[in-house]
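Please predict the structure of the following assembly.
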Amino acid sequence: MHPPLALHAERLTKRYGRRTALADCDLSVPRGHVVGLVGPNGAGKSTLLQLACGLTAPTSGSLTVLGSPPAADAAHLARVGFVAQDTPVYASLTVAEHLRMGAWLNPSWDAALARRRVAEVGLDPAQKAGRLSGGQRAQLALALAAAKRPELLILDEPAAALDPLARREFMHGLAGFVRELGAGAVLSSHLLGDVAQVCDHLVVLCAARVQVAGPVTDLLATHRRAAAAPAGAEVVWAEPGRVVVRGPAVRDDAPVTLEELVLAYLSRAAARPAVIR
Amino acid sequence: MIRMTVRQFRLPALAGAVALVLAGAYLLRLGADIRAEPDPARLPDRYAQTMLFLAGGFALVPALIGAFWGAPLVARELEQGTHRLAWNQSVPRRRWLAVKLAVLSAAAALVAGVLGALLTWAAAPVDRVAGDRFSTVLFGARGVAPAGYAVFALVLGVVAGLVLRRTLPAMAVVFLAVVVVQLAVPNLLRPHYLPPERVTVPMTAETVNRARNLGSITGSPVVGGLDVPGAWVTDISPLRTADGRQLSDAAFGTCFRDPPRTGATGTFGDTAVCLGGLDLHVDLAYQPNRRFWAFQWIELALHLGAAGLLAAFGLWHVRRRAG
């Protein structure tokens, strides 16, 4: 039997009133990967991740995380670490108090890891969390989520509020940290550049639907850039002088970059939002 | 989770403790002053106003607890987004809320219970002489009932914060709601906890003059403020004639506006004499003072029960609410 998937969605739908945030999403993400979830703002990324950590419930369809419904019980909560968008922390508690809180509320807490991580990123344990910079707050939130020793780390736009330098630093640190934890991770961003450097699995979400998903190497291997649409291949997106196709390679084709690939799918979704499945 | 709750509750708890110490010191001082009074018979005269004032102020304690301890508890987390941090620790949401409710309920019961006990103690000599601790206003500032009010208000505050998701509106709503409940319970519910005893009081001129007020409300002639010794009067019927029918407005009006002149003195003068001659009576419903403690426990149980129902709703709601 296969170990359960990190994320497994079947016809997952979430509506807020009349607005559909996710429509009939099917998604299978194996464990142990670093998954980049990319898409423009409002694509449904946050909704998918909030569903995954149980902060909200699906309108219809099903979603399992590590083989169980999200946030099923205390044991399952302990297996998933979540860093919410804007990385909320308690403004009136100090960094050290946040770590103490983590120890109180998580049986699997790794105090040494938390302390080391906080020291590594240069946080003063006596500092009130409300006075940290955005980047420092993100680091604290990541340390809190990671010191639970989760099997899966979920990060919702962890770098969105950071300036480019802090963003690169954060992402760089994150990659090494996730590797060290031996955990899987799902991180979302509206910028491919953020996740491209760390992820080995990509999910492109746009207009409430999953446009394409798979290991980065497979995606790059199955997509080509052609000068004109060749017969027998699926055209993802065509524009004058450039066509991105999916299918076996034909003579004259050039390899596609990850950015071109993502852009092709996003352009297709934006052009025909209602038709694309 | 208990330690986390206590840590987050530190500031509000400190504010509550300071208020408790100040109020407690005042009540101890008041109790000592009352006990230093050489003539106990004069106590009600000297302290009746103070007792009413204290009972009125004390009635605000649950509203304050609900608004300042209860409402922000969850609403602030939802407002600042920290629930997304809290709910992703290895503590299921329902337990997170249950522990918070339990810890803060205990604190609320403690504060209101201690203040209530101190006030009961301080007022005891006055109550012994005046015999009116069962009255609508004083009852809620004596005995064990205040702890129930506080727990109810606290849980109401927490649940309102959870449902409304905004701290300030939740505080305002809870404060108002608790005040309304504090007014409604003594007037609408409390008289009916046990079947009242009834007595028929003949309306002689003398009895009419003992009444606090006299008048006609929408066509039914009523007297107000009649006492039954050693009891809390919960209902006074309109003036009735010997055959049990309500006194006609016309007859009442004659006595009220144009009574035969007899030169009588007394609160209502000639009107009292005129009404006294009509062979009238009123039916009183009352709760004897010996039921005071039974009513205290009933009131406590009622509020704790309501708090329990609210808490159950909150625990159900927190599980299914969206983040």
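The interface with chain A takes residues 1, 3-4, 7-8, 11, 80-82, 84-85, 87-93, 95, 320, 322-323 of chain B (CB under 8 Å). The first strand of chain B starts at residue 197 and ends at 202.
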